[in-house]
Design brief:
2 domains, about 0% strand
């Protein structure tokens, strides 16, 4: 029996689904009043107060999307802020990373300033952006850009620096111009580094949007979470977290699909070993 259900490529998704179901079942049992004796809290209502009840959380999500349909305007704002921050931060990080990697003098001049900006906890910029750009979409996008930019920048910079000198010498010997080197050598080398950073950047773009909404906004999922927190409605808070997590996974999956199409030339680990 174990031979058929043993985790492997064919049954991996089923094991992942089973683990997810087990987590929610355990969550339901531990937080539902009366199902288990008290062994941590003083009464059986406190666990539900602090951690929420899965059935009520799913009920809130159902009401948001189906019964009332009042989450769509908030979700649209948060997704717009996230996608804009992700796209702009990625483009700026890619451009600056390539420029400084190919310009040693400019990189040497900018090095202390880049390190200083990167060491700054960028969430503290949220109030400044709110003053500069107001409480609309722009301030959330600006915060998200600062979070995404440095992740992409450092990965692109390192990816270009990792180009083999032998490959560069051979390309130059064959008469490749600087534009051809950029297109056929530097960019392919940096692409794998870029996509490794983009999977992290998706989550950071969401962080920028939600933190900005949390500090000041009139719409957005972060705004809904803030309102629920003010009334100690942990079920709504958890529902907002689950919705954001689900859409972050969808965006990460889309990045993975793009990566799969653009990185077809890259051999897998098994193929590399055979070579």
């Amino acid at each position: 029996m174990w031979k058929f259900i043993k985790p492997r490529a064919a049954t991996l998704r089923w094991w992942q689904l089973a683990l997810l179901v087990a987590i929610f079942v355990a969550w339901h049992v531990l937080t539902s009043p009366g199902l288990l004796p008290n062994f941590v809290f003083e009464n059986d209502r406190q666990a539900a107060f602090f951690f929420g009840e899965p059935l009520k959380i799913f009920g809130r999500i159902w009401a948001w999307f189906v019964t009332n349909g009042d989450i769509y305007q908030h979700l649209w704002v948060t997704l717009l802020e996230t996608v804009l921050a992700f796209a702009i931060g990625t483009a700026l990080g890619l451009a600056c990373g390539l420029w400084l990697a190919l310009s040693p003098l400019a990189a040497a001049i900018a090095d202390p300033y880049i390190k200083a900006l990167n060491s700054m906890p960028r969430v503290i910029l949220a109030p400044i952006f709110a003053v500069w750009f107001g409480l609309g979409v722009a301030s959330k996008v600006a915060l998200g850009v600062t979070l995404v930019f440095f992740i992409v920048f450092f990965n692109v910079y390192q990816g270009v620096k990792e180009v083999s000198p032998v490959v560069l010498a051979n390309a130059r010997m064959l008469g490749a111009s600087q534009r051809q080197l950029l297109r056929h050598v530097y960019l392919p080398s940096a692409t794998s580094w870029v996509f490794s950073s983009l999977h992290t950047s998706v989550g950071l773009a969401f962080v920028g949007a939600v933190v900005g909404e949390y500090l000041g906004s009139a719409r957005g999922v972060g705004y809904l979470i803030l309102q629920a927190e003010g009334s100690f409605d942990i079920n709504t808070v958890m529902a907002g977290i689950l919705v954001l997590t689900a859409f972050a996974l969808v965006l990460d999956m889309l990045v993975g699909l793009v990566e799969g199409r653009l990185m077809k030339w890259q051999p897998s680990a098994g193929e590399t070993e055979k070579l």
